[in-house]
Inverse folding.
């Protein structure tokens, strides 16, 4: 991390000596904003008991509409060691978590690998979920082969212009395609237990943006034509415009029922068999958890 190239930004920050990368963090410690049971993932991830979600601070992508903006810029969170992260994994398992869900983990990949290995040596048996933006380097993903069981990845853009405007990443489509190919290579066919919980697999999420139905159709078409029903799609209508988007009026509103309905109709017309959809009023800020550092520090003895 003295010349960081973990993510596609290749910013080469000297994180080892305290310089912040594009992601907003250094490399000496792991900054974590929440570690708790989380019920708002896909049913095969959350189940009845909840996913053991660990929310990491900082982000290599930094979308202007980020729903987790409070932590994407690394303003919130507590610095912890790799040893403490391994303890958190085991504590979540003890609370009944269905899996360990690493949310925005990319920029901490080396530390996370060591923490998972340490936790497994101490009895962790749960699947590891890598919950990411899709903006991943293949070389970094290869480090996770044998560590990650489930990739829960975004695929945000097939439109390079939209990727440039909203995420400052015009190379996003090409990067995400290569990353997804590596994820599928590692995982192969999905595996579920008798209760319908995913034990191995790849889920591709797409958050529909207002006025960007064509982009969404392009993502769905690409993923399905490339991987068929090996990959599960998760089509989301929960986009919530937060303050500060006045300069981008085209996305400064919620998605309409008509927009989302047209995306679902298109998905069905392609013959997609494995997909999750959202129903009802999902575009609420209540879907954004409180980044209050719950579960990050050790619980005080009674």
């Amino acid at each position: 991390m003295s010349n960081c190239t973990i993510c596609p930004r290749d910013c080469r920050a000297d994180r080892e000596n305290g310089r912040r990368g594009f992601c907003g963090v250094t490399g000496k410690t792991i900054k974590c904003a929440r570690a708790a049971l989380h019920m708002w993932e896909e049913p095969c991830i959350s189940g009845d008991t909840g996913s053991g979600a660990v929310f990491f601070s900082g982000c290599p992508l930094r979308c202007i509409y980020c729903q987790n903006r409070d932590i994407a810029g690394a303003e919130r969170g507590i610095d912890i060691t790799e040893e403490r992260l391994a303890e958190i994994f085991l504590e979540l398992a003890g609370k009944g978590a269905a899996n360990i869900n690493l949310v925005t983990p990319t920029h901490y990949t080396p530390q996370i690998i060591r923490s998972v290995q340490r936790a497994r040596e101490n009895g962790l048996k749960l699947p590891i979920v890598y919950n990411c933006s899709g903006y991943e380097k293949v070389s970094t993903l290869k480090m996770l082969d044998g560590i990650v069981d489930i990739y829960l990845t975004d695929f945000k853009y097939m439109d390079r212009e939209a990727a440039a405007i909203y995420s400052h990443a015009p190379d996003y489509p090409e990067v995400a395609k290569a990353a997804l190919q590596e994820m599928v290579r590692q995982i192969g066919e999905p595996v579920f237990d008798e209760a319908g919980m995913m034990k191995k697999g790849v889920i591709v999420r797409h958050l529909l943006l207002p006025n960007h139905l064509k982009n969404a159709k392009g993502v769905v078409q690409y993923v399905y034509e490339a991987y068929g029903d090996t990959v599960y799609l998760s089509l989301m209508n929960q986009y919530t415009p937060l303050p500060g988007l006045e300069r981008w009026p085209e996305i400064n509103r919620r998605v309409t029922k008509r927009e989302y309905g047209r995306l679902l109709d298109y998905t069905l017309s392609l013959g997609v068999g494995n997909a999750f959809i959202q129903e009802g009023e999902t575009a609420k800020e209540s879907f954004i958890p409180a980044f209050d550092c719950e579960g990050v520090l050790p619980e005080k003895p009674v």
Notes: The chain has a mean pLDDT of 95. The chain has one domain: 15-287. The chain has nine helices and ten strands.
